[in-house]
């Protein structure tokens, strides 16, 4: 309501200002400039609309006693003017100085008593003059104390009248053209600025430049229409030649363009003030000013629609309407600029003086026209000069405006990039830290597991339980951190794999059984309709159950914990319910439990210290995997957590495990296994030792060479790509030494190109491609049947099954642990090498991933690392931008959880 009253008051004030009467323009001015020239009477005027009155008739009519001047037509119709003069000094030599190039027609006659009308010649002015003259001087002779007078026939423009001055001949300066030169120079500056900003609009595509060009073009057109002869533009443009397009319409269009430019220019400043609570009052003022501008614009559009239909009799009314609209707009726009400038928008400080100068520069000549001040013929130059200055300052302000806008966008872009960079660095830091922590935790868990299988006393058993369960808790926390970082990409990183749900659930219950037994809690598992095999995300299922069961154990003091799992074939979903008899949660706690990393909620839920990660991560993980999690709880009665996870049944059953061939009956050999990946060395060593061979290990070529100098070996089984000394270099040194030249060398790698195969065949070296089966390994070492380089790759799941069958589950688990450790280390080396653009280190690390992954039958990891290893091998220069994208993508496909 208050806003409506405020706007209504402003509108009434606007109308009151609009109804103020306008001052009639004087068309002719006769001045003495301080010279002793007496004006016998005021200048008389006689309208001659139809050009039907002769000079003699005009003189006779205006010389009659008691003659009253007629009403002049402001639209530039023809009229006669007569100025009676009497010369009171002895000097009779005078000069008529005409300083107006805006008039269309001008004839002078000199009349003295006792003589007839004497026509005076009128040289051309403005651009019609070869000297660009802005004024000319007509020498005349005024007899002393004789009644004389000037008779003028004029067709002048509406706003600027004809200026005629009387000067003594001694002070007259002939052919003064300074005014015209300066005027044309100012017009040239304006035209240049219009073209310059239009070109900027074409290149930058900023709307403010377009509005500037529109406003400048209209303003320039209005000035040209006022400044130059009509005949110069005949046939060029109706804007200058059509008499219906008056200065009123042109100036109204200019004001519209000016308001559009102002609003587009001020928008960032207005938005800044709007969002600042301390400047709300200033924003209220700006809204009022904008409202007044819009009202002015609407009124102009309305009057513009009827301007062609108005009768000639109300021309003065049209002039009044035009005058108050322009005056109101020129008053509001500087005020709007000042308000925005005070609001802190720097370009507005340039805009405010620009329009203030424009307003003052237009008011001063008008005051000269109205005879309030003496401009001495320089009014037009003042107008063009201030207009040029205004256009220059507007262009400067516009440049500042666009620069600030571009800088703001750049700052926003930099802030977004910095935020993304910081987020990425944080996640990489947490991920790296988690991996580094998990490596010793694996050793700790493995050691405590082995320790738990030994004979321990009661006291030792307590110490073992404390250490083992603490290590398990720490391991779960680290996994939670990894899950929190990677839950958004879980669809990509955790591909659907085949698993036995019953076996997974039983192993998980067995893992957490001791923790529940510590608190005398019973942990029970109920399964219903579980198929022997499912395809889905077992990692998500395992992490969800670990978190939910751990929370249940932690918050239950008495009672039991029940885990129910059922397969729903109609929905292809696994339904899981974890229910406890613990302290439960209130409705308030339940309403806020989904808050991510909300440690406060976890603290309310538990009296014990908590990491505050479990339940929030469960919500994030299950949603990222496409499932759903819900909680039911009552304070003091326990909690029930339900979640569903999409799964599917395998379409084709896995083939039955084939019986493994018996170990070879060949004699036992002394074999040197050389590989920089510990998991690869362990796999090869365990397989060879299970066949009865004696095995030594070396981590690279240099270490192997040292061992070859110390003891004798029957076979060297070596990887190709290794740091310091690779397999090719080791082979060359062996062949170059006579004592070792007949030594059997088997080189293994994930890939061999044609040139490498031919080179090794010439050197009598056997090649074994990864992945290989135990039979292929033994056959190659024994020399019974060299492995074919072109044979197809075996079924990878069968490779791992063979490994378990030959070595047993415990040894296979140890191999997998080494693989996971080595994989984390190699991923770190690839990331580090990419940051320093060290291709060789990256390829060595990628090669180790390829070889060890294929040995375990992990095709996804091997293929992803293979692309990194061979990228850019045949290119003269590596495209690091594209390479980094490949590295980022492929490393996201290599998961430690695939094992």
From TrEMBL:
Keyword Cell membrane included in the entry's annotation: yes
GO-annotated cellular components: plasma membrane
SUPFAM superfamilies (UniProt xref): ATPase domain of HSP90 chaperone/DNA topoisomerase II/histidine kinase, CheY-like, Histidine-containing phosphotransfer domain, HPT domain, Homodimeric domain of signal transducing histidine kinase
The entry's keywords: ATP-binding, Cell membrane, Kinase, Membrane, Nucleotide-binding, Phosphoprotein, Signal, Transferase, Transmembrane, Transmembrane helix, Two-component regulatory system
This enzyme's EC code(s): 2.7.13.3
Localisation: Cell membrane
HPt domain segment(s): 808-899
Record's bilayer topology term: Multi-pass membrane protein
Domain (Response regulatory) ranges: 670-785
Reaction equation(s) it catalyzes: ATP + protein L-histidine = ADP + protein N-phospho-L-histidine
Pfam family, one: HisKA
UniProt cross-references to CDD domains, sorted A to Z: HATPase (cd00075), HisKA (cd00082), REC_hyHK_CKI1_RcsC-like (cd17546)
TM region positions: 181-202, 209-229, 249-270, 282-308, 320-342, 349-373
Residue(s) carrying Phosphohistidine: 847
Chief localization: membrane
Positions bearing 4-aspartylphosphate: 719
Signal peptide, first to last residue: 1-24
GO molecular function list: ATP binding; phosphorelay sensor kinase activity
Chain ranges of the Histidine kinase domain: 432-649
Protein name: histidine kinase
Biological source species: Thiothrix nivea (strain ATCC 35100 / DSM 5205 / JP2)
